[in-house]
What does this fold into?
Amino acid sequence: MAAAGFFNRFMALRTATFVLCFVSMLAELQRIDHSVNSDSLRFLVVGDWGRKGEYNQSKVALQMGRIGEEVEPDFIISTGDNFYENGLTGVDDPAFEESFSNIYTAKSLQKPWFNVLGNHDYRGDVEAQLNPILRMIDHRWLCMRSFIINAEIAEIFFVDTTPFVDKYFTHPGSHTYDWSGILPSREKYLSNLLKDLDLALKESKSKWKIVVGHHTLRSAGHHGDTKELVKELLPILKANEVDLYINGHDHLVQHISSLDSELQYFTSGGGSKAWRGDYDLNKEGLKFFYDGQGFMTVEMTTTDAELIFYDVFGNVLYKWSTSKQAYKAI
Ligand SMILES: *[C@@H]1O[C@H](CO)[C@@H](O)[C@H](O)[C@H]1NC(C)=O
It folds into this structure.
């Protein structure tokens, strides 16, 4: 039994490695091809989740599995804060299985999981979450600091947002952050990342450009806007006509529209513990806000996109759709 188990894990790792063939590599950004053999791309988005099933993480997971059966997602995106309170202690931390493998067990969720790091993940051993060894425990897992998934219909740019936020460096309080790989040259790390992102966005041939990060750009929730990202990241997204910015960090689901561009902001941070009653409903551009648990589905073709928020019971909270013309009328 043990040998068979190891063999399966080994084969899973080989398969995962095969799928992840890196086609290009910028200083901070790897581009990974993930072709979708269909004329639509479908994925689920969940954030701020790893609590060993508690705070309704298991209930949200159950509904993701149920809705996933209808949606048949190509993959799942995690917007970070994968393991509370302090990330993983190492690659052998049982929290990896207790909060991930043993929770998202539904058949429909046995797809690649593309994960970014949140600020809580930076309080643990960051390298552990990035270590491909984790794919021997659960072949679905893929976490890198910043990377690109080229799914043809859409290109998805995952950005490591935690190192942008000054207060984690200047006022860490009682928390310790693992800045290996970031310090001592934080400025260089951030400027390389932004330069690579700008270049990769300019090169992108996809109809839809989606950027995913943990921190908010715009939020009516407790954390509000992340000023460092508004200053440094947002101009690049606008200049390159990014369609969607998807994040977590605030434990809720919300949609905010831009007033001066096509960019739409979606927060999916309701994977477990929710904060209720801490928000600003006068937020400019706010279209939808729900301060409870939930997750999001995204379905897109080359011309149309539909995003749906679900709550902890699997009820639809909100639907938003948009379309792009296939051909410009002459
Ligand atoms: C979990 O969800 C139930 C609804 O199923 C809700 O009544 C309860 O407050 C939630 N618990 C937590 C800890 O959020």
